[in-house]
Amino acid sequence: MNDCLFCKIIAGVIPSKKVYEDESVYAFYDIAPQAPVHILVIPKTHIASADEVTDETASLVAAVFTAIPKIAKIAGLENGYRVITNIGEDGCQSVKHLHFHVLGGKKLSENMA
Ligand code: AMP
């Protein structure tokens, strides 16, 4: 087991509130929600960030984006939502395992930064 927090969540070593799972994707509620609905969607394979995606791992990102509409439906986000991924220092990425924030449940701010 590597030292990655999200790899430990996928393995069940650290508990999470699961929303969705398939063979290559795991989704769970963020522990510090920044919107009424705040879900993290991650590939089960460790990729450090979106900046590390390669031709070999692009299909895992496609699997995440195939799962996101299903996850939004499960979470009741019929009126829309936002998907964000933070990358590196300037992007304020705190967990170095590729993850997509799915935010919704209210009209979100127009500000992106
Ligand atoms: P980022 O800042 O983009 O790297 O996002 C990391 C996210 O992981 C933050 O929104 C945290 O609140 C969330 N987070 C950290 N630890 C946990 C945990 N154990 N369970 C659920 N979410 C977590």
Which key phrases capture this entry?
113 residues; 21% helix; 22% strand; five-stranded antiparallel β-sheet; binds adenosine monophosphate
Quick summary of this structure?
This protein is of the alpha+beta class and 113 residues long. The chain contains two helices and five strands, in the order H-E-E-E-H-E-E.
Low-pLDDT stretches are none
The small molecules bound here are:
adenosine monophosphate
Number of strands: 5
Helix coverage percent of residues? 10-25%
Main sheet overview:
5 strands, antiparallel
* Separate helix tally: 2
Sheet with most strands: strand arrangement? 1-2-3-5-4
Estimated share of beta-strand residues: 15-25%
Q: Which structural class should the secondary elements be placed in?
A: alpha+beta
pLDDT averaged residue by residue:
97
What's the SSE pattern?
HEEEHEE
Indicate the radius of gyration in whole angstroms: 14 Å
Distance between the termini: 35 Å
**General form:** globular
Topology diagram in text:
Elements: H1 5-11, E1 18-21, E2 25-29, E3 37-43, H2 58-74, E4 81-84, E5 100-104
What does this structure look like?
The protein has 113 residues and is α+β, with helices and mostly antiparallel strands. The protein has 2 helices and 5 strands; from the N terminus they run αβββαββ. A hairpin with a 7-residue loop joins strand 2 (25-29) and strand 3 (37-43). It is globular. Bound molecules: adenosine monophosphate. Adenosine monophosphate binds at residues 5, 14, 16, 30-32, 40, 86, 92-95.
